[in-house]
Amino acid sequence: MKKSKLFHKMNWLNFNHLMYFRAIATEGSVSKASEQLRLGQPSLSIQLRQLEETIGHQLFLRKGRKMILTDAGKAALKYANEISTLAGELQEVLHNKNYQQRAHLNIGALDSIPKGLIKDLAKFAIQEFNCNVSIFEGVGDELHRQLLSHQVDVVLTNHHLHASSEKSLFTRQFGSSPISIYGAPKFKSLQKNFPKSLEGQSIVLPTFHSKLRHDIDSFFQLNQIPIRVLVDTQDTAIQKLLAVDGMALIAEPPLAVSHLLSRKKLIKIGELEGVKEEFFLTSTKRLVQNPVVEHIMKKFEGDSSLYETL
Question: Tell me, which fold does domain 99-175+279-299 have in CATH?
Fold first, then answer.
């Protein structure tokens, strides 16, 4: 039987070459990867060169003994990690004689999203589909690119990830949460005559690119309450550290500080009436859609009250 022209022309990836590349990228050098793989350095270098020739891209920049991933290398590593995971799942499936492939969901989340909310999304997916979940945190632009390149399946944010004219992306409201002011126990007296009691107080707020920051600023302006913004940062961990140290007050959804409230590291001063943080799920069109994503997006279609944080 004659082989097709496509078969002759296609450069087939060698699985071993890909896994050797992954080891080099993970270890940071050929010598360390060689020790891990128990394979000679010259042989490993040859395998890497063959992979680069096959795909037509340089995967590393060599600076002395350091191996620095190129953009092509970074993209290849993400796929190599996924292929390694799938290979492990295949071995498990064949070993256990369970021939139904387990679904996988890659969740991208803004690093400012409460960890409890990310956990709840992962828990929802696992309970509904018994799927494997990978979670990646980052900034908006980075998550946008990862979604468009299908490196993540769905993104959790506290603002719309894309312009309304961008037809390839779909957004659903995952829920909303009231925003309250929290502080160290020494600020307990501020609970009286709230929110006027906040006048002149030091507060840590999100940065200006956050919709929540504008909503909080509007609240204080409308109520004619002058405050002192001590720090503005999107890093919620820094916000909470400053609050626990008694440096300033913070404005957060309850889910973000529940563990600190239970340990009495922080207390609730009062709720900012009318100020809420909204959370959104965004997915993108694919030729073959992830069934977990389809289910999640359908679940939250047209009903913003399905998830209300406490």
Answer: D-Maltodextrin-Binding Protein; domain 2 (3.40.190)
- Alpha-carbon span 18 to 23, nearest angstrom: 9
- pTM reported for the whole predicted model: 0.62
**Burial of residue 117 (number of CB atoms within 10 Å: 0-12, 13-18, 19+):** buried
Q: At what angle do helices 236-244 and 254-262 cross, to 10 degrees?
A: 40
- pLDDT tens readout for residues 91-107: 766 766 654 556 788 89
The number of residues making up the chain comes to 310
- Fold of the domain spanning 5-79: Arc Repressor Mutant, subunit A (1.10.10)
Backbone angles phi and psi of 137, in degrees to 5 = -105, 150
Could you please state the CATH topology (level 3) that the domain comprising 177-276 is classified under: D-Maltodextrin-Binding Protein; domain 2 (3.40.190)
Q: Quick one: tokens of 299?
A: 């679940």
- More confidently predicted of 96 and 187: 187
Q: How are the residues of the chain apportioned to helix, strand and coil, as percentages rounded to the nearest 5?
A: 45, 25, 30
Following CA atoms 78, 81, 82, 86 in sequence, which dihedral angle do they give, to the nearest 10 degrees? 170
Q: Give dist(CA 70, CA 56) in Å, integer.
A: 13
